[in-house]
Write a structure and sequence with these properties.
89 residues, elongated, mainly alpha, 0% strand
């Protein structure tokens, strides 16, 4: 079985060639969104990995529009089935 790649291996960060950042303690932002394999891993049967997404956002990561829509659509379906939640239209 092939080991899945980490976000650092698949999503590079912006470079700081002059080392002149005002706040060096803030991590450099990623140059592109995370891959679908990292957002929806096979180990979770294609469900979103909320821990990965949380950590990715904390490092200034972004999702694609399709990834975001998939998460919202899946959440909407779950909320519709919950009798104790507000109606989601």
């Amino acid at each position: 079985m092939e080991k899945s790649k980490s976000v650092e291996e698949t999503t590079p960060v912006l470079k700081d060639p002059f080392k002149d950042r005002k706040v060096n303690s803030v991590p450099l932002p990623y140059t592109r969104p995370a891959s679908n394999e990292l957002i929806f891993p096979h180990k979770l049967n294609g469900d979103p990995d909320w821990q990965f997404i949380k950590n990715f956002y904390l490092k200034a990561g972004v999702l694609t529009k399709k990834q975001f829509q998939k998460i919202l659509n899946e959440a909407s379906e779950i909320f519709k089935k919950e009798p104790n939640c507000n109606r989601v239209a």
